[in-house]
Task: structure prediction
Amino acid sequence: MLNPATIVLKNGKDHSLRRRHPWVFSGAIARVKGEAQEGDPVRVEAIDGELLGVGHFSGGGSIAVRMLDFGQNATLPTAEYWEEKLGNAYRLRQRLGLTGTADTNVFRLVHAEGDGLPGLIIDVYGDVAVVQAHSIGMYRARPEIAAGLRAVFGDRLRAIYDKSAETIPGNAAPDAKNGYLFGESNGTEHVVQENGHRFAVDWETGQKTGFFIDQRDNRDLLARYSPGRRVLNTFCYTGGFSVYALEAGAELVHSVDSSKKAIALTERNAELSHHADRHAAYADDVLGFLKNHSAEYDLLVLDPPAFAKHMGARHAALMGYKRLNAAGIAHLAPGGLLFTFSCSQVVSPELFEGAVLAAAIEAGRPARILHRLTQPADHPVSLFHPEGAYLKGLVLAVE
Result:
């Protein structure tokens, strides 16, 4: 882009960018010099003309610019930019021990702001990368992103799949369709390994990018507590916690999800574990299942989808977490363990803990916190963007 538009900030509205926060809100803009279309790379200046950085413009939402680079030497993205950013993200995963290992070949390569690429998620499943754009700027940059991925991975990458149709905002790209940016489907089941556990992943029609990678460390912790226990995994999706519990020696594992397709994948993954004889799956509403079944469990997982995606829904979400956790606690045997989670970004760890406390009071059950949980290291949080810390969880011992 030869003549990018320039976003000029109001006087005093440049402090967050000087602290490298990656969002410019629409209310901070004094004027736009030139013509900025949705998704365009733009320059961002202070009121005195000082260049503060460059980013992707988004005129339709409260976040008007997502920053890609900061400072007076910032330049618009080039092919070298994408290769460097993706290479940096890959090298971090190498240092974390997530690449080139025999027992794990699934990891998050790019976690949006946490890797300096706001609006972009990339998950790797063996030899396939799944790209998900959450902004129109990243959506328009998909060809450059795909080229950068091929430069970083070389022949270790068989295919790149774009899963952005459901995540780009509003009507920014009404004709968007998911599909392969490079390579194609090989028509066979794709099985990945995580900590030695095998999972079938469907990135084409599954939720998110096909697998909930962010619970890897928490699944590993659950395995430590599973031997000999009766386990209930709710909102199980493809059965991640269920497989870990089965292979760790749980006495039995029950999995519940409202999606019949998710239950089918859970049953398949239980088969891959070779312990399906100790597993039963139910396609049912979780609260309905808890209401209509009287069985007690020694370990229970509550991992619902986000109850609140904006501040206006936060109070209702907290009431929902209280209701769900009270119902779950009622099904725990004395001395049982509750793994309970929230992935609602607008619900802080303190508010979530308060909702779980209210649930324990309502259930009349003493409880102790054994662990406070969060997202794994391949979902990093920028020090300058604390909003990137979305996953929070508790492990409770319930009397």
In short: The CA atoms of residues 234 and 286 lie 6 Å apart. The radius of gyration is 22 Å. The mean pLDDT is 95.
